[in-house]
Design goal:
By secondary structure, the protein is mainly α. It has one domain (about 10-75, about 105-225). It is about 70% helix and about 0% strand. It has helices at about 1-10, 10-35, 45-55, 60-90, 105, 110-125, 150-160, 160-190, 200, 205-225, and strands spanning about 145, 150. A two-stranded antiparallel ribbon has the order 1-2.
Amino acid sequence: MSGLKQTFSSSVGAKTLMAFSGLGLVGFVITHMIGNLQVFAGPEKLNAYAKQLQDLGPLLWVARLGLLGLFMLHVGTAFRLVQANKAARPTPYVRKVEERTSFAARTMWMSGLIVLVFILYHIAHFTLRMPVGAKDFTSARYELPEHGHDVYRMVVLGFQVWWVSALYIVANVLLGLHISHGASSAFQTLGVRHARLAFLKHGFGPAIGGLIIVGNCSMPIAILMGLVGKGV
């Protein structure tokens, strides 16, 4: 156990830990997005999907706590690496030369922190069902005898509040940028060197990041435009 702890305490081990935790979180984001996109299929589909998740009972909370632990591990490891880099270079450069890096790479910390705040808001909005704008989701109006919570109605009414949709869109653009750089860096950290797998280091991150931006942002945009949720 001490050997394993020593391994992950090193810079290389910490980067490996951050890579694995980051890819695990990317997998969750994609799965979550696919489930949420069922809003385009109508209330029955989305509410049935939400009911399946609720029927997991304690297992759902085990998954939530596991996801929270993975997220905290990822953030904590990133913070530790930043502190280690600062400790290794206590005296800043006299003249700092900017490297040619992407916008996503330069804003990893900022986008990560904003996404963290958004996740907390998202949990309060849909999981804890706290009031959003004039929408009180704790009301009996959002309960269905056969499906539990009327998640479809909650999503539609929530995104009809323009600033909620704006926050969601901004957060997901930042999330996509964060993933576009982070996912590719993760495969580089894990030592993907085979020529046939080169796309994982160069194309996977931007492709997945773009897909997440388009997929997640399509929902509030469609609701604001009245293409989804008419009559709700």
